[in-house]
Each structure stands twice: as C-alpha cells, then as structure tokens.
C-alpha cells in the first residue's frame, strides 16, 4: 500500500519554528510593518492577492456559513445537547479551527460543525450509544484516527476503496436526510401513527408550515441572485415570522424585550459541553459500525472539498498538486477531534469557502478572518438562542438541496454501482439512519461483485467494512 505522493513544495513549506522566527524576527517598518509581516507570512503577493481581498473574501465566506450557529444547536438539541452552550461552543470550535487552518496550512478553507455529520450524531449515534457524550467520544476517535491515517499516508488509499458512485450517494443521501429533518421540524411532514404509510403531509393551514415554505422561497431567491448570507437571512426572516404569526407566537413586546435585554453569554454553561466527550464508552466493539460510518462520511467529504477549493483558488504547484495538502488534511482531521471535545459534533471543511475564493482570496489570512468573526459571534449567542427551533427548517431544506446535487454525478447506467448507490441514497432518509443507509449500500455492492465473479474489483478494506456492518446488523 503506497504512501501519499502529495508533497509540499520547498517554496511553500511552512515549518512552525521557521514561520514563528520569520514572523517575530523581522525588523519593524515605520508605517506598514504589520502589513508587510502579514504579506510575507501568508505569501499574499506571491499568490496574486492582497490583504484587502483576503479580508473581503473572509467576510463573504463567513456570511455564507454563519447559519451553522443556529442550525447546529437546533439539530444537536434533539440528542439532548443544551442549546445555549452549544451556540457558544459552535462559534468557539469553528473560530479556533479556522484560525489554525490559516496559520498552519495557509489555505483559504474555513471550517465549522458539519451538516450531515451533526445529523448523524443526533439521530443515529446518540440514540444507539445512549448519550450525546458517548457520541461525541466517537467524534474524537474519528478525528484522531483520520489524523493517524494522514500521518502514515493511508488517506489516499482509503479514497480509492469506495466506488465514486457510492461516495456521491452518501453525500446526496445525507442531504435528503437533512432536508427531511427540516420538513419534520416545520410540520410539513408528520408521523401518521400507522404502519402504512408511516408518514403523512402536515396541514397546509398551519402557520409554521406556511412560514417555512416562505422561508425556503426567500432563501432560494436570494441564492439565485447570489446574495451573500442568503441562508442566514432566511433563518432570521423565518424566525421573525414564527415569533409574530405562528401558533403560540411570542407577543411583540416579549420579542422586543429579548433584544433590549441583551447580555453577555453565560460562559459558565460552556463547562457543560467542553471536555464531556466519553471516549471510553465509544471504544466498545458494538459501536464499530457507527465509527466506520463517521469515518467514511467525514473522510471522503473533506477530500472532495479540499480538491474543489484548491482547483478554484489555483493553489497548486507546477505538478498540479495542491500545495500543503498533508497539512490541510492534518488540520481538518484534528478539527474533527476538537469539535468532539467541544461537544458540537465534527468540525470539518466547508465548501462555502468557495464564496471567499470567488472574491479573490488565496491564502490562510482568509481563514483567519473567518475564525475571528466566528469568535466574535460568541457574544451574539443570546440573540441566536431566541430563534424558534423551526426557524432553521428552511436552512436545513436548502442545505439538503445543495448536498443532493451529488445525485447528478451518479452513473445509474451501471447496475453494479448504480443499484448500491440507489440503495444508499434512499435508505439514509427512509431508515432515519445514516449508518444503516451506508451499511446496506456497501453490503449490496459487495454482494453484487461477488455474485458476478468480480471479487478482485472490491478493495480489501470494503470486505472488512461490509463484514462489520453485517455482523452489527445481525446483532442489533
């Protein structure tokens, strides 16, 4: 099994000790010393950018992904994670990881708690493991294992293990699952209470349903017009609508009081999340399928995101390799563990970073700006907390739509991979379990390859993963 062939070019290698020496030992300039230091440390001019461009790009990226401050706590609350601390810790974890990405990898990539990954924790891992603390322990393990894979060069080998169609199906299936969660939270879809059909449409006359659909339309219009922060605007608009017009609506006077009574967040509450991940509980063998699922989802999604941002920013060497790829992947892997430690699910790379890159950002200064803005949002936690739970429903539906774009990349003309991809795609939302959807998809793929006598076309890692899923499903 070969090691990763990607390597940093000598010109772009940033070693921590050398970077610190270069940054601190430069003689001060009379007027623009800080600007010169930033330019040299982040190699801004070398990458045909400017400090103003990097700052503008960082603001654009932040606006496109700030919705996670409301969406992540709303999802994790269904697993028992307390909302107010989750808002603060979501901002803290994202801010810290973005800054690390900028300083260590010098790459225009922002990070925050991952959509889809948080749904896996809330609706699959936590119920199966008995507590959100154990589920967060699983996230810490996920990050540490992937970091080890990066260190020994195995991540590229893992990338080639799962067929491309199945990887696209995982992303799209999780998108459908996230959208379903939004529909359930808004009352658009409800339980029928009968075996067939298990679900039914909600009441169109329900104000919450109407406001949610209006939020979806508003967000869609803003996205179509490429308005920065479209999803965030949709959340705020829907929140106001629910406060004033939904059933059990908050009286206007109470809403106004919420804003005038703005106070600093209660940092004492942060202790209820930080460091509560139960890694020991997550080490039980019966949870191995959950760990495998988390590894697969986190693992492949990041590689696709990094590749896309690297291509768009043209941060590549003369051999068309992404500069500093191993450092980028190492920071991303460590960020997953940081997210689990902070109790806010896996922190991962965001494709929304493309917004900043489209503004011209090419360096890690972009990511540092995003991180600082997330840290400032800690003080907005009281305002985020007054949003009704259903206010994030339009955001979940829209994010599901964006993730479902991967369906268009699946080749359904090839039954040997198309059918397992379809199984994965439909069973993730239908079983309300990401691990079951992925597990059934892998088992279907391996079975088809064995029966059609194409045993050698299946990577050995897939035989191992399929076996673990099979045993776990039999025992459950």
Strand content: under 5%
Spans of at least 5 consecutive residues whose pLDDT stays below 50 are 1-31
What is the terminal-to-terminal distance?
34 Å
Helical/strand content category: mainly alpha
Large-scale geometry: globular
SSE ordering: HHHHHEHHHHEEHHHHHHEHHHHHHH
Rg (C-alpha, Å): 23 Å
Q: Give the biggest sheet.
A: 2 strands, antiparallel
Cross-sheet strand order for the largest sheet: 1-4
* Number of E-type strands: 4
Number of domains: 1
Query: If helices are DSSP runs of H or I spanning 4 or more residues, what is the number of helices?
Result: 22
Helix content: 55-70%
Average pLDDT for all residues: 83
Structure overview:
With 476 residues, the protein is an all-alpha fold. The protein has one domain. The chain contains 22 helices and 4 strands. The protein has helices spanning 16-25, 33-42, 51-65, 68-76, 83-105, 117-129, 132-152, 155-159, 164-186, 207-224, 230-245, 252-260, 279-282, 288-313, 325-341, 353-358, 364-376, 381-385, 393-403, 415-430, 434-451, 460-475; strands at 111-113, 189-191, 199-201, 347-349. A hairpin with a 7-residue loop joins strand 2 (189-191) and strand 3. The chain is globular and about 70 Å long. The protein starts with 15 loop residues before the first helix and ends with a helix. The model is unreliable at 1-31 (pLDDT under 50).
């Amino acid at each position: 099994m070969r090691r990763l062939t990607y390597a940093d070019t000598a010109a772009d290698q940033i070693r921590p000790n050398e970077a610190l020496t270069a940054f601190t030992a430069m003689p001060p300039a009379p007027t623009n010393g800080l600007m010169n230091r930033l330019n040299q440390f982040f190699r801004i001019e070398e990458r045909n950018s400017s400090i103003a461009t990097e700052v503008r790009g960082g603001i654009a990226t932040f606006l496109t992904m700030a919705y996670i401050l409301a969406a992540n706590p709303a999802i994790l609350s269904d697993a028992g994670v307390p909302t107010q601390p989750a808002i603060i810790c979501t901002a803290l974890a994202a801010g810290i990881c973005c800054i690390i990405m900028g300083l260590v990898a010098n790459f225009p990539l922002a990070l925050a708690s991952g959509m889809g990954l948080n749904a896996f924790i809330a609706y699959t891992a936590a119920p199966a493991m008995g507590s959100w603390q154990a589920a967060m322990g699983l996230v810490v393990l996920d990050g540490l294992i992937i970091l080890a894979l990066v260190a020994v060069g195995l991540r590229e080998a893992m990338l080639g293990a799962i067929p491309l169609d199945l990887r696209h199906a995982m992303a799209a299936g999780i998108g459908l699952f996230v959208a379903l969660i939004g529909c359930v939270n808004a009352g658009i879809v409800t339980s029928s209470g009968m075996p067939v059909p298990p679900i039914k449409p909600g009441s169109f006359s329900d104000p919450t349903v109407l406001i949610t659909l209006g939020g979806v339309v508003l967000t869609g219009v803003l996205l179509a017009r490429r308005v920065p922060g479209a999803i965030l605007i949709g959340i705020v608009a829907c929140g106001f609508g629910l406060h004033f017009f939904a059933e059990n609506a908050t009286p206007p006077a109470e809403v106004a009081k919420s804003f005038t009574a703005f106070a600093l967040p209660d940092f004492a509450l942060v202790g209820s999340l930080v460091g509560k991940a139960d890694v020991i509980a997550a080490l039980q063998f019966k949870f191995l399928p959950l760990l495998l699922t988390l590894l697969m989802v986190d693992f492949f999604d990041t590689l696709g995101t990094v590749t896309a941002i690297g291509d768009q920013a043209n941060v590549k060497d003369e051999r068309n390799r992404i500069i500093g790829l191993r450092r980028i992947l190492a920071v991303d892997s460590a960020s997953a563990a940081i997210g689990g430690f902070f109790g806010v699910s896996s922190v991962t790379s965001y494709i929304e970073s493309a917004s900043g890159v489209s503004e011209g950002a090419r360096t890690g200064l972009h990511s540092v700006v995003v991180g600082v803005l997330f840290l400032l949002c800690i003080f907005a936690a009281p305002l985020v907390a007054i949003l009704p739970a259903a206010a994030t429903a339009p955001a979940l539906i829209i994010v599901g739509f964006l993730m479902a774009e991967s369906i268009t990349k699946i080749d359904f003309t090839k039954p040997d991979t198309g059918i397992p991809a379809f199984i994965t795609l439909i069973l993730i939302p239908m079983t309300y379990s990401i691990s079951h959807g992925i597990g059934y998809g892998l088992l279907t793929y391996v079975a088809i390859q064995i029966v059609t006598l194409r045993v050698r076309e299946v990577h050995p890692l897939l035989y191992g993963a399929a076996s673990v899923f099979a045993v776990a499903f039999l025992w459950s």
